[in-house]
Amino acid sequence: MSKVQLSNVTKTYPNGAEAVRGVDMEVESGEFIVFVGPSGCGKSTLLRMVAGLESVTDGQIQIDDRLINDVSPADRDVAMVFQNYALYPHMTVHGNMSYGLKNRGMPKQEINAKVVEAAKMLKIEDFLDRQPNQLSGGQRQRVAMGRAIVREPKVFLFDEPLSNLDAKLRVQMRIEIKRLQRRMNVTSIYVTHDQTEAMTLADRLAVINEGKIEQMGAPIELYNNPATLFVASFIGSPQINLLPAMFDGQYLSSGDLKLEGFVDLPQSKELVLGIRPDELRLSDDGQFPMRVDIVEQHGSDNLIYGAILGAEQESDEETEFCFKTSQDMLPELESNLTLGFDVDRALVFHKDTGERLR
Amino acid sequence: MRNWNWRLISTHAILIVGVLFMSLPVWVAFATSTHSAEHILRNGLQIWPGGDFLSTYNEVLFVEGGVMKAVLGTTMLKNSLILGIGFAIGKVVISMLAAYAIVYFRFRLALPLFWIIFMTLLLPLEVRIIPSYEVVSGLGLLDTHVGLIVPLIASATGTFFFRQFFLSVPDELLEAARLDGATPWGFFIDILVPLSKTMIAAILIIMFVVGWNQYLWPLIMTTKEENYTLVIGIKQIYQILAEGGELPQYQKAFALTILATLPPVLVVLVFQNWFVKGLVESEK
To answer: Looking at domain B71-280, what is its CATH homologous superfamily?
Structure first.
């Protein structure tokens, strides 16, 4: 049970590139934190700084109030699961899991007991004598986790551990990681670019963009109340629908469309209206005429993609919306629908700063 | 069908000529070594084996005065083995350590140092043979195994091979080992050396053969007969032949030559699987 504290953590590479720019964060004991963001946003660098694999340019990292900026990775009492597992190919599963303990000078019997216990927990006790190249991807992932578990570290670090697995296995392992973390109650930091993984695993979610935390909070909080345009568009699948718009004091207008019900917005500034696909509904007096382009049937629900007629265009392409509906609604392609939305649940952002206005 | 036959026949003819071209001299040397000195002197080189195989090889290997004045063939064989094995192991150890330093320790001069090591490939032993001799004789190491082996074991080729191999080992392994609390030595011994084992085997084999065939350096280094290697022994026995005196013992010279080629051949035959593996495959 340990907490992790980052204050003003910064990473600048020798070539001047700023990977992380002043991150402040407090991870509570036993909490599952997920860093999510596009590739190159600095989330992995941040994790590797906590692990001690990257030096800290500025700021402080503390585990349980102990400053660890200059402590070697081995002495930080953290364990990490790597994206490509990083198992030692010439060692057996048992060897892989026990190597860290052996280096710490633990007696052999104790090591054995711990390895067997962890292997049982991960259901890999039958493979202890095999080498990694005799295992499937999912089994290797379990071994990598086993290697972390036997150490009984203060903090678990996961660096995109599921991205090498196929879709089905990924969901399975995701649930298992969550269950394991609950059971062991170890503070964990998990890096991913997959927003579904982020939403489902996290106690709290940190959306990272260009080396900074855009917003941090419970996943559902970030989904319902994104602080910026970036968070709104990154969290949620399918993506939020965005519409460029202007406010003239009475209407929020986008091209030929005039939307009623908005008040207290800055006038003659470029704005962006955001509406989640599941906030849209079919309605005869709706505000958006849509021409259906593609219908994706996902089973329980359908996703209908189409151009919003008359809306302002960002580029040459027409502004597309996604509309999430139940499986029995199956419109003809090229047919027109009229969609409505609830003004109270719509989000409005400042286009340039990305700041949320309502 | 006819065309196909001709192609098959001509291909095989070329292959057979090639095989004969390569192996016939070795066979002639062997066949000649099994005849008596008088027979060879009268009839020249022999293509069929004679009846003196056991007596000649016995004399060469085990009888004092059989080849040299005092030293036995087995002693020279032993010296050659010590040189070959010491040379190979020394080269592998030194070049692995050098490559480890260059790849994993990011000191400032790592790259220039690597290129300096690499450039020494252009400087063969012959170029530095006099200063090397000076150093070794100054240290009082003439006529010792240490003096024979140590000046030869720095290896640019080996360093280069191991460097390329280490560069291809994923960084995550190092990072995982660091988190697992491995020391730099621990990582080298526990992870890197086992990963390189096929590579090590391949280089050991090549270097054993190279070391076994060393000629110039042992020739300069050794003054006493009991330190001669087989290769030097062959040279000496031909010299004795040239100086004349008694009946030239051609059969013994050939026997010694055959004995000198056997160990490298055996090593390659026995370890060829490892050798090929080391060159083509890397399990990571």
So the answer is: MetI-like (1.10.3720.10)
